[in-house]
User: Fold these one by one.
Assistant:
Number 1:
Amino acid sequence: LCDTAGRSEFDTIRPLGYADASVFLLCFNVAKISTLRSATQRWLPEIRALAPSAPIILVGTQSDQRMNTRRGEAIEPSVMGQLASRLQLHWLECSAVTQQNLKTIGGNYKKEIYVKFC
């Protein structure tokens, strides 16, 4: 599992790791709509251009924070589902606090690694 640097100084080095990636977990914070915009407008096109055959899972993090967010700022699951469908991505939400879907993410990731290297 590798977290990439998002700063523009790393734009030339970051893609070097894409070729060997088995799967991409495209993460954003469900309590901050700006992070979803960044994921879909910046990161998704880059991943699709540089690793077109790799599966991408759209992961909404911090789902436990949705209720603590100002109205209109959080992303509802129905909106995520529609967006993921339109972008042809699998998606799920998770929370490190409640442990929601953490095993699911790990299971999907391990499955892709197994398929890639066997």
Note: Residues 60 and 93 are 4 Å apart (CA to CA).
Number 2:
Amino acid sequence: MQKLLDTFKALSDETRLRILKLLEHGELCVCDVVAALDMIQPKVSFHLAV
């Protein structure tokens, strides 16, 4: 049950949902996600690590 709660908590973040939307059509490298979201690389990497 805790794993399910953690998953939904991670998905409740707007940035992570935006990343998922980008990835629904296929794989992207971090640099592509950074460019698409106009964010800095460390912040994108943080969200991907969750």
Note: Residues 2-49 form one domain.
